[in-house]
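User: quick one, fold this
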Amino acid sequence: MFKLIGYISVGGSLFYNNVRDGEFERTSFEQGIQANYSFLTPRHRVFSTVGLVHRNGDGYIDDIVSLENYSGSWAIGYEFLFNKHHSILIESLNYQGWATDDPDFSKPSNEVVLGYRYSFRQLSLEALMVENIRNMDNSADIGFSLGLRFLL
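Assistant:
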């Protein structure tokens, strides 16, 4: 018999940006909140998140793009553990459009992540592939990344 474990966590973020001159001149202050839920068994992990960001509505480059005041996102994922060191994962990442007046960046972004994770004690090495689906004009079509995660 195995034990089922569920976790709930909440996080927040603050971001201040002040570029005083040049092509990217801008001042902004963003606040974010995120709620996460994870469900764990010895071989399976399901995780989800939902988030909301508020930003002041100044334009990134005032003459080109205006930003939404609020932006939402959500994600769901699954990880299968072959043993205590090796696992594979799949995630669905979904973001609300972030621009008010750009036809491509005002549409939602939907991405699928496929990956492999090697875990050793408090470290994990990840190799991931991110594929943009549905609206191909608002993020990279495909991306690859290597990551190192550690548990404090």
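User: anything notable?
Assistant: The two ends are 29 Å apart (CA to CA).
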